[in-house]
């Protein structure tokens, strides 16, 4: 019998791809922030485009949670990166992005790596995380917040990559919390589990860092940095502690797929070019930024 996790996984990829695109457009319409200011999320919430994108991200989050009930973290977290392909395709079709040849090649490589992971992943329920795991998630939250406080001072592509990577670590911690949480027997057990609240806090911090990262240049660079930084810790924790499994005899395929996927997303942080820039007031008035211009509805 085919696990329903595969259907949730495919829908998650589409949802995250649309969310990346819409949130990047909204971030381009908002004044660039150089402080770790949670108020950015409130300002972004003033854009209808961002709210729709956030709705898609929430849908992707729920779908990912459902997929993690059976599928290993190394597959689900790596598959989040496949949303980049959906983002890029929609960007080309809707916003007339021009992707460099290197970026197109890396996106193809990304899908090849994820295909290998799909073929190697064996569905299995998760094990409980334990008290030590809870403490580690709390500590990681503090570390990410402290580093983020200083990383917001970076500008341009380095800022996109650094903040995107921190967002990936926050979302990776949320994924670790979500894997055993998804196996809760009842709704009451779900909301009473401390992992539920750690998942929420890590997700909010990750969302803030991703918004800051998207303001500083390339959408694909920010999201690729997020995916690259988030995939490795979740994969390690999943395999060592949470009962993530690989089909016997396909360990080599999982290793190749993971390395290829990781190389592709790291490559995207290096070769991706900015798709949008913040416009000056005069350009806003003349609508010179095209489909992604501030104030222009999608």
Q: For this entry, what is the oligomeric state of its chains?
A: single chain
The helicity comes to: over 70%
In which order are the strands of the major sheet placed?
1-2
- Count, helices: 13
The SSE order reads: HHHHHHEHHHHHEHH
- C-alpha Rg (nearest Å): 18 Å
* Anisotropy-based shape: globular
Our measurement of the CA-to-CA distance between the termini, rounded to an integer number of angstroms, reads 41 Å
- Strand elements, count: 2
Strand portion: under 5%
Q: Kindly give the count of domains.
A: 1
Mean pLDDT: 80
The low-pLDDT segments are 276-298
What does this structure look like?
This protein has 298 residues and is mainly α. It has one domain. Helix content is 72%, strand content 1%. It has 13 helices and 2 strands. Strands 1-2 form a two-stranded antiparallel sheet. Helix 4 packs antiparallel against helix 11, helix 6 runs antiparallel to helix 12 and helix 11 runs antiparallel to helix 12. It starts with a helix and ends in a 12-residue tail after the last helix.
